[in-house]
Design brief:
Helix content is 21%, strand content 44%. By secondary structure, the chain is of the alpha/beta class. The protein has a single domain, classed as HesB-like domain (Hypothetical Protein Aq_1857, Chain: A). Strand 6 and strand 7 form a beta hairpin.
Length: 89
Amino acid sequence: MLTVTEAASARLAEILKQEEFPEEAAIRFVREAGGLRLQSDNERPGDTTFQHEGRTVLLLDEQVSELLADETLDVDGPKLALRGAGDEP
């Protein structure tokens, strides 16, 4: 399962607040030809969810969850960064 650091969870919550997304919206990783992108979305049945301070901030469908199983979502300066098991922080 994807590991999401506290810093990444807080950054996702900050993005949702800054963009004034509704409380039921979260950020979702979406597969596309070039890799992954982020978009706002609502939770769907079967999603893996990640929370920060009681709010769902990240959604993964089953395929993306499997793809990111050994990854860690963290922050790198102001940006979110995915790191594999062997990557340096």
